[in-house]
Amino acid sequence: MPDHDSLVRIKDLSFSYDERPVLDGINMEIPRGKVVAIMGGSGCGKTTLLRLIGGQLKPTRGDVLVDGRAVNRMGHEELYALRRRMGMLFQFGALFTDISVFENVAYQMREHTDLPEELIRDLTLLKLNAVGLRGAHARMPGELSGGQARRVALARSIALDPMLMMYDEPFTGLDPISLGVIGQLIRKLNDALGATSIMVTHDIHESLQIVDYIYFMSAGRVVAQGTPDEIRASTDPFVHQFVNAEADGPVPFHYPAPPYGEELLRGAAHG
Ligand SMILES: Nc1ncnc2c1ncn2[C@@H]1O[C@H](COP(=O)(O)OP(=O)(O)OP(=O)(O)O)[C@@H](O)[C@H]1O
């Protein structure tokens, strides 16, 4: 999806943990206003990629540009200022359990802004209203269902009106109805905030409903990409495996390991 006005541009990006290569020559464009999914088998480097975009990790080679600036070359202050404009919702983005729903959302504003208390109150209720939970503002997190708690975490991550939202497996552990609700919210909030969103997920069916573009990764590389219509029509074996939820195919089910027979024999020799 080449676009010169992309909010995020990933150029020839490689990354290794110590000596172990995880990402290898990634190129991606995330245009402004769009919701883009990144999919791929377990361990292929999706979360690592989000951490590189957020500046928590530095690439071994290549660049990550956000709003035209190379994140990997920013100093502390610039990076801190940029992170304030990014919202992140991680898989187990747990709420603080000992403070109310309202306080969980207001916390972000109290920490990062000098807004007066009345304004924080109004904005917090506005964010909770956007996820349908204004009425639950006085509840404690322990009194919420899993889907409701995820919605509060979502309200918290948009508290500062981010220009870029990053979601790491936002659907994990949700029942199908809550999953659909969160999916719709991700799309609606993106459009209402005029934001841009990147979502790492395993859920191809939800992605096809709500995103503008999908990148498929395998073993640290981009192996397929396209709009939902292109993905539905694709005959690419990687894409096919995802769309049809096949356990094995080009994306291996097994973590790389020596042949099983060999390992059993080795175990027997040791035992
Ligand atoms: N801090 C770390 N130090 C060393 N290796 C790591 C570290 N974090 C992740 N890895 C390894 O890097 C690879 C990519 O991990 P990453 O979490 O980015 O994958 P992923 O695609 O998000 O996986 P999943 O879908 O299972 O969450 C994995 O093989 C993982 O074991």
TrEMBL record:
Keywords: ATP-binding, Cell membrane, Membrane, Nucleotide-binding, Transport. CDD domains: ABC_Org_Solvent_Resistant. It comes from the Bacteria. Pfam families: ABC_tran (PF00005). Coiled coil: none annotated. Residues 8-244 form the ABC transporter domain. GO terms for molecular function: ATP binding; ATP hydrolysis activity. The keyword Cell membrane applies. This is Phospholipid/cholesterol/gamma-HCH transport system ATP-binding protein. It comes from Rhodocyclus tenuis (Rhodospirillum tenue).
